[in-house]
């Protein structure tokens, strides 16, 4: 937002497993009237011009993400926001975070995951999915081989160790990762998510909320007040927890007609239990204003009770365990020890993004989805967009949005407050959502391909 041979070979691209009869990797669609006119699809340049014209109405607005303005269907990608917005583009890097028996190795594993979490922006163009509606939810699995290689974490050549200490002895059976997300609030727009991998003893959770401001030439996107980052917990290491905060990003190219994502900010990865912290600084502009997509960082020991280090230059050499440098859209390297990155003769490849592409999701079949489950909820709009029936798609989209407004007005008249179904609250002050009993049951069902769910007692849209 996103490896020299012995030290850490490249993470290989593994083909996604074939979907079983109970799951699907394809978008689910519903039939739309055949009489609806087929229209010429706008090209990307005309899409952006129209989008730019709409954005100009919001010059000076503090947070356009909170306005929730409605776009015509021809400007949208036929993808639900809850499905699009996840951090598991390469699940094998996520499940390997806890493999090391050493704290530094686990932090390096966390960083390897970090640089794959927004692979969709490295490999594809930014897009505008559907706005999520209140109570809408999405669930899926990923199944991947546990093939992420060990990471060297000591100058003596020692690598990470686990039940299987080398890439060659690791099990090649598929590991399942399950994912649940729900739109818990509409004003402000907030969704909660939970990732669960019982086999590897690792979970992740957090709230997704964005704040956006149009500058006239680009859109600056920052985490919203309830988005405190990704919280990863290693259950096999006594609940060791990592907090990964998000940097600000810019969506540019509006005037050129070609969208691109750039990052020029500082973010942090912390683990209070191991007392290890990482500062990552993203540097966007180089000489003569050339985009460089550079990232540099420092891994160091810190005092969680007195955390005063916010910049790389603030960290004394005596506390440094390693350094990070590279291109977050290409290759990222690390060095061990306190020596300056440029002077260290052993630069180890943490991740090479070039051969990697997002892994396909395994989604419950449409007949097992509830009416407020993302793909089924938006199926009519999706089908109309794919059939280039943009007028019909806009009409169906507006009907869903109006239904949401009507239900909100009804709750207000009844003095009733919306309650999420799968998470215990719309937000929490600490940024970590908890599951309800229904939420726990959804994840247990995903683990076993049991997708049966009782319909919601109340719908938000």
TrEMBL record:
PROSITE patterns: OSBP. InterPro entries: OSBP_sf (IPR037239), Oxysterol-bd (IPR000648), Oxysterol-bd_CS (IPR018494). It comes from the Eukaryota. One of its GO terms (cellular component) is cytosol. This is Oxysterol-binding protein-like protein. Residues 1-39, 158-169 have a biased composition (Low complexity). Belongs to the OSBP family. One of its GO terms (molecular function) is sterol binding. SUPFAM superfamilies: Oxysterol-binding protein-like (SSF144000). Residues 1-42, 149-169 are annotated as: Disordered. Pfam families: Oxysterol_BP.
């Amino acid at each position: 937002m996103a490896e020299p041979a012995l030290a850490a070979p490249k993470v290989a691209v593994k083909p996604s497993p074939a979907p079983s009869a109970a799951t699907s990797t394809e978008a689910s669609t519903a039939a739309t009237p055949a009489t609806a006119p087929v229209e010429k699809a706008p090209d990307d340049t005309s899409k952006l011009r129209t989008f730019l014209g709409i954005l100009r109405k919001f010059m000076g607005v503090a947070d356009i993400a909170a306005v929730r303005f409605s776009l015509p269907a021809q400007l949208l990608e036929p993808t639900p926001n809850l499905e699009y917005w996840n951090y598991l583009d390469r699940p094998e890097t996520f499940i390997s975070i806890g493999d090391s028996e050493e704290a530094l190795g686990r932090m390096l594993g966390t960083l390897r995951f970090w640089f794959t979490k927004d692979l969709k922006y490295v490999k594809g163009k930014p897009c505008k999915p559907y706005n999520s509606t209140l109570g809408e939810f999405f669930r899926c699995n990923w199944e991947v081989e546990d093939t992420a290689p060990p990471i060297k974490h000591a100058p003596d050549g020692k690598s990470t160790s686990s039940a299987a200490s080398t890439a060659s002895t690791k099990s090649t059976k598929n590991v399942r990762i399950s994912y649940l997300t729900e739109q818990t609030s509409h004003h402000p727009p907030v969704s909660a998510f939970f990732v669960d991998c019982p086999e590897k003893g690792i979970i992740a959770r957090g709230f997704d909320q964005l704040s956006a401001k149009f500058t006239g030439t680009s859109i600056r996107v920052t985490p919203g007040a309830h988005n405190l980052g990704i919280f990863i917990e290693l259950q096999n290491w006594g609940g060791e927890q990592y907090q990964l905060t998000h940097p600000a990003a810019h969506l540019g190219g509006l005037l050129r007609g070609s969208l691109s994502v750039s990052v020029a900010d500082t973010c942090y990865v912390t683990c209070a239990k191991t007392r290890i912290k990482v500062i990552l600084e993203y540097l966007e502009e180089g000489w003569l204003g050339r985009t460089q997509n550079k990232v540099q960082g420092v891994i160091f020991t810190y005092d969680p009770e007195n955390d005063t280090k916010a910049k790389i230059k603030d960290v004394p050499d005596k506390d440094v365990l390693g350094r990070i440098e590279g291109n977050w859209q290409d290759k990222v390297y690390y060095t061990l020890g306190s020596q300056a990155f440029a002077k260290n003769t052993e630069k180890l490849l943490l991740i090479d993004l070039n051969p990697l592409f997002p892994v396909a999701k395994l989604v419950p079949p449409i007949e097992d989805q509830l009416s407020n489950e993302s793909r089924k909820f938006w199926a009519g709009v999706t089908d109309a967009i794919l059939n280039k029936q943009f007028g019909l798609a806009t009409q169906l989209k507006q009907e869903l949005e109006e239904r949401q407004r009507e239900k909100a007005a009804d709750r207000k008249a009844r003095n009733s407050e919306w309650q999420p179904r799968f998470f215990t609250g719309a937000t929490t002050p600490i940024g970590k959502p908890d599951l309800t009993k229904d939420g726990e049951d959804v994840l247990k069902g995903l683990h076993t391909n049991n997708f049966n769910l009782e319909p919601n007692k109340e719908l938000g849209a």
